[in-house]
Amino acid sequence: MPKKIIIIDDESSILEIYSQKFSTQANWQILTAKNGKEGLELIKQHQPNLILLDIVMPKADGFDVLQKIKKDETLKNIPVIMLTNLTDEEDKAEAFKRGALDYLVKAEHTPSQALEAVKRKLKV
């Protein structure tokens, strides 16, 4: 059964690039959401193997979404990797404090590098 990954980002181009890379290179099922509220609904409905989560988004930012995931008994064990352009160490520390498994800065990681990071976290 293919891995199920949810990508939550408000930039359509990011969703498209990462979805294509992950579905073709790893043969995973990719679901996407353009805001935190929509993302939480997808997560509850599909129980993915991993979540890639942006921070700056409308209708619930990534920190709020992460906190809600980690407080929900049925979702808290789903690994979450933050995928953002925020480079501030305080943002990174906050993400880890709230339960993120990893923190990738989009400008510093290609989609291929992000895919490799996800594979390592999923041990595939």
Automatic annotation (TrEMBL):
InterPro entries: Bact_response_regulator, CheY-like_superfamily, Sig_transdc_resp-reg_receiver
Taxonomy, superkingdom: Bacteria
Pfam family, one: Response_reg
Taxon lineage: Bacteria, Candidatus Gribaldobacteria
SUPFAM superfamilies in the record: CheY-like
Name of the protein this chain belongs to: Response regulator
Domain Response regulatory, chain residue ranges per copy: 4-121
Modified residues (4-aspartylphosphate): 54
Species: bacterium (Candidatus Gribaldobacteria) CG08_land_8_20_14_0_20_39_15
PROSITE patterns (alphabetical): RESPONSE_REGULATORY
Gene Ontology biological process: phosphorelay signal transduction system
